[in-house]
Every structure is written in structure tokens, then in C-alpha cells.
């Protein structure tokens, strides 16, 4: 047998020989390529859309809900994150403890790790008692590189990876440009963040590429990795589909929520390429919901401000295609009942707009084109409000946090019904395009080979 390099040399030298001296090899090549195997049984190359975690079986039930907190500067996003952390158990340590308990095989440890939420429906009493004993677990991420102090403990912090002030000095950027650059730099490492989130939330590495990471991590992850070969042997080496099912069956829900804090400069996250990378990456692995935080006292002072917030929420929803929850913050200052009424009752908003226009008749913002535009937009957005979830929360006192969690859970159900279904359609559409392109290329190759054989004859 020839070595690989020698085989390449022999093929190159044979191409320089006259056609009369190489008829047998050409007939052999003709027999191989003129009768190709069907496209349906050809081995297709790996594509990113072929292995999307959220499309795996039972992934939605066992995955935590990811909440991306967005909003205008000063709306209270960071304070809300701190209040949510106080209401949730710390998932960074609970996940590791429950992994170790699961590796030791203690049934009591698995119950204490938060698996009561995924137990069988028959054990209703035990599940409710476990839920009352322990609050939902959360895992927090900070994506704001410019903040100096955050009032909560972030398990993953962008400031540990990118220095905002150094980026501003080296690249000679302003504040907003430096924030955008930091987000772009951190996006190049976001695959590692996704690996950490999957290990912490599911207790199992989803993909062969994360095995090295797990081996270099904590002892709990190492024990979880050692149990993989046994599951693969039980499933059978001849059927890779059974291996995937066995791995999915081993997944444990260790977290209930993943909370992501974003910069106050909302446009740097919502309209940048890095922001799209973050949202799509999280949505490809976990049920993801946008939480748009609104400054309620400012909306109470002007219906125009309320309409501006609703327009921005609408644009973010249609850009990301993710379900959205409107969170009316600072309800300890002004209640959110008036804003929720405006979203559900068109006539109530029109009456409030009339009163505001009468009280500020001398202001240019309440008369003329601007007032007519606000009325027209309220009519257009009336249908948009029907697909929005909303709640009132006080980040200072913690009032309404339970209602916020309920709204997020309802939005997560919309994620499964709308986003996942749309994602499956997009994946099938891309696969159909690839198959059509492969058939077109194969037909063109056959025509070229037939034309070459006719010219030789």
C-alpha cells in the first residue's frame, strides 16, 4: 500500500499522461461518478442548526427559564436583579452540591437539590412541601461592563473578562462605544459561558466538545462525566440515537431561573450584533424571555412617555422574536394599575390622553402632529398588547416578585408554542435548501462528466 503523500504524487503524475494510456482508470472513475448514490443517503456535513439543544427531547421541561432584563437607563434593572436574587436561592452552589449528591446516589440529596419541581405528578403533597421549604434557585449574569458596583453577586461577570476603562483608553472610544466594544469582545467567549450554564443548570454536558471543560472543573462535574460511558454502553454502541436519549434522561434540573443583567444603554444591547449573539445563543439552549423594565412614575407623568416605552418594547419583541414581559417597576412610588389599564382598555388611554392634552394645552408636545401620532399609535398597539405579559414590581421593597415569576412562567409557555415552533420551521427550511443545492450540484456534475466522456470518444 502506498503512503498518503506517495498516493497524491501518483495521482498528480497520472493526470499528465495521455488519455490513451489511462483508459482503465478513467472508465473506473466514470463508473463511480456517473451512477452516484441518492442524495437522501449521502452523509451530510455537520451544520450548527443540526444540533440545537432546545430542540432535543425533554429539554424544555428540564431547562431553567432564562430572563434577559432590559430597559431604559434609570428604570431600575440592577436594583430589580438584586431583589430577585434575595428572593431566589443561590444556584451556583446548589447546583454543585446536588451534582455531588446525585453522584453518590443519595435519594435524599436529590430531593433536597431542587428536583421536586420535576417529580411525578402523583407526589403532589411531597412536591408542594418541598417547594414551600426551598425557594426557586437562580443563577445571575452581569453583562454591563461600565458599572462599578453591583448590589448582587453575579456568578458570571463581564468585568472579570473585559476592562471597560482599558478598552476606552486603548481604542480612544467614548462611553457608549466602549460598552459596545466590550460586548463584542465578550461575545467571542460566549460559547464558554454557555458551557458553564449548561453544566450548572442541567448537571450534564450537552455535547462532546465540553468534556475537557468538565474534566478541568470541579469534582461534581468530574463525577458526572465519569458516568457517561456506562450510560452509553447500556444504550448500545450501534445506535447513537439511544445514546442521546440516555444522556437526556440523565439531565437534572438544578436551576429554575437564569437572570441576565444588561447595560443601561439599551441600544448597545438590543441593536448590536453582540446583543443578537447573546439572545440567540441563550434561546438555542434555554427557554428565554425578555423582561422590559419600565419606569412607572415617568409613565404616570406623561402618556407620551408610556407610548414611547411600548414602542420600544414592541421593536425589541419583533427583533428578537422572544416573548416579552413588561415589568412596571417602582410601584412603591406610583402604582402600576393605571398603566395596566391603559394596556387593556383603549378608551381609558384615550381619556387620559385627553386630560393630559387639556392640562398642558400650551405645550407643543401635547398638540398638533405629536398628539395625533400618539392617538394613532395607541390604536395600532392595542392589538399588540394582547400578546404581552405585564406585572407590577417594586425593586426596593420586593412587592410583586411572585407576580413577576408567574408572568415569566407564562411567557416561557409562549416560548415553547411560538419560538420553538418557528425555530423548527427555520431549521427544516435550511435543510431543504441544502438538499436542493446538493441535488442541483450533483446533476451539474453528471452533465459535466457526460460531456467530458463524449468529447473523449
Describe, in short, the structure shown:
This protein is α/β, with parallel strands linked by helices and 457 residues long.
First and last CA, distance = 33 Å
Mean pLDDT: 74
* Helix-and-strand structural type: alpha/beta
Rg over alpha carbons? 29 Å
**Uncertain regions spanning at least 5 consecutive residues:** 1-45, 94-100, 102-132, 205-238
Main sheet summary: 8 strands, parallel
The helix fraction, in percent, is 55-70%
How do the strands and helices of this protein lay out in sequence?
Blueprint: H1 4-14, H2 23-33, H3 59-62, E1 65-71, H4 77-87, E2 89-90, H5 91-104, H6 107-112, H7 124-133, E3 137-142, E4 156-157, H8 164-171, H9 175-187, H10 190-202, H11 211-215, H12 219-226, H13 228-235, H14 240-250, E5 257-261, H15 266-270, H16 273-283, E6 288-295, H17 296-301, H18 303-320, E7 324-329, H19 337-344, H20 346-359, H21 369-384, E8 389-392, H22 401-456
Parallel strand pairs: 1-5, 1-6, 2-3, 3-4, 3-5, 6-7, 7-8
Describe this structure in words.
The chain contains 22 helices and eight strands. By secondary structure, the chain is an alpha/beta fold. It has helices spanning 4-14, 23-33, 59-62, 77-87, 91-104, 107-112, 124-133, 164-171, 175-187, 190-202, 211-215, 219-226, 228-235, 240-250, 266-270, 273-283, 296-301, 303-320, 337-344, 346-359, 369-384, 401-456; strands at 65-71, 89-90, 137-142, 156-157, 257-261, 288-295, 324-329, 389-392. It is globular, with a radius of gyration of 29 Å. Strands 1, 2, 3, 4, 5, 6, 7 and 8 form an eight-stranded parallel beta sheet that branches.
Amino acid at each position: 500500500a502506498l503512503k498518503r503523500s506517495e498516493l497524491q504524487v501518483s495521482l498528480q503524475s497520472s493526470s499528465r499522461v495521455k488519455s490513451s494510456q489511462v483508459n482503465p482508470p478513467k472508465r473506473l472513475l466514470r463508473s463511480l461518478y456517473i451512477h452516484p448514490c441518492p442524495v437522501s443517503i449521502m452523509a451530510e456535513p455537520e451544520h450548527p442548526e443540526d444540533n440545537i439543544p432546545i430542540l432535543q427531547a425533554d429539554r424544555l421541561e428540564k431547562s431553567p427559564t432564562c430572563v434577559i432584563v432590559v430597559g431604559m437607563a434609570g428604570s431600575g434593572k440592577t436594583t430589580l436583579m438584586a431583589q430577585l436574587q434575595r428572593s431566589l436561592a443561590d444556584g451556583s452552589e446548589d447546583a454543585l452540591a446536588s451534582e455531588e449528591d446525585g453522584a453518590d446516589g443519595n435519594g435524599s440529596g436529590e430531593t433536597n437539590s431542587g428536583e421536586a419541581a420535576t417529580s411525578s405528578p402523583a407526589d403532589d403533597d411531597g412536591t408542594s412541601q418541598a417547594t414551600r421549604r426551598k425557594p426557586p434557585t437562580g443563577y445571575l449574569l452581569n453583562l454591563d461592563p461600565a458599572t462599578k458596583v453591583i448590589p448582587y453577586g453575579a456568578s458570571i461577570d463581564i468585568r472579570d473578562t473585559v476592562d471597560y476603562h482599558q478598552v476606552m483608553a486603548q481604542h480612544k472610544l467614548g462611553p457608549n462605544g466602549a460598552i459596545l466594544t466590550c460586548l463584542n469582545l465578550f461575545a467571542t467567549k460566549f460559547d464558554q459561558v454557555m458551557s458553564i450554564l449548561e453544566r450548572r443548570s442541567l448537571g450534564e454536558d450537552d455535547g462532546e466538545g465540553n468534556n475537557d471543560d468538565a474534566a478541568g472543573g470541579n469534582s461534581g462535574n468530574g463525577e458526572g462525566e465519569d458516568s457517561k460511558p456506562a450510560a452509553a454502553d447500556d444504550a448500545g454502541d450501534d445506535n447513537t440515537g439511544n445514546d442521546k436519549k440516555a444522556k437526556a434522561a440523565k439531565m437534572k434540573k438544578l436551576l429554575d431561573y437564569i437572570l441576565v443583567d444588561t447595560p443601561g444603554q439599551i441600544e448597545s444591547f438590543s441593536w448590536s450584533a453582540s446583543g443578537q449573539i447573546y439572545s440567540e445563543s441563550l434561546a438555542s439552549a434555554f427557554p428565554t424571555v425578555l423582561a422590559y423594565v419600565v419606569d412607572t412614575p415617568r409613565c404616570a407623568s406623561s402618556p407620551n412617555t408610556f407610548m414611547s416605552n411600548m414602542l420600544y418594547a414592541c421593536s425589541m419583541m419583533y427583533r428578537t422574536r422572544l416573548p416579552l414581559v413588561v415589568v412596571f417597576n417602582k410601584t412603591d412610588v406610583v402604582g402600576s394599575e393605571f398603566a395596566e389599564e391603559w394596556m387593556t382598555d383603549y378608551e381609558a388611554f384615550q381619556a387620559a390622553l385627553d386630560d393630559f392634552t387639556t392640562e398642558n394645552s400650551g405645550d407643543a408636545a401635547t398638540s398638533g402632529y405629536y398628539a395625533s401620532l400618539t392617538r394613532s399609535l395607541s390604536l395600532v398597539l392595542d392589538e399588540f398588547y394582547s400578546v404581552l405579559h405585564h406585572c407590577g414590581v417594586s425593586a426596593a421593597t420586593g412587592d410583586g416578585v411572585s407576580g413577576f415569576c408567574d408572568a415569566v412562567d407564562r411567557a416561557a409557555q409562549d416560548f415553547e408554542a411560538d419560538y420553538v415552533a418557528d425555530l423548527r420551521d427555520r431549521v427544516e427550511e435550511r435543510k431543504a435548501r441544502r438538499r436542493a443545492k446538493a441535488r442541483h450540484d450533483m446533476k451539474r456534475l453528471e452533465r459535466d462528466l457526460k460531456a467530458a466522456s463524449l468529447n473523449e470518444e
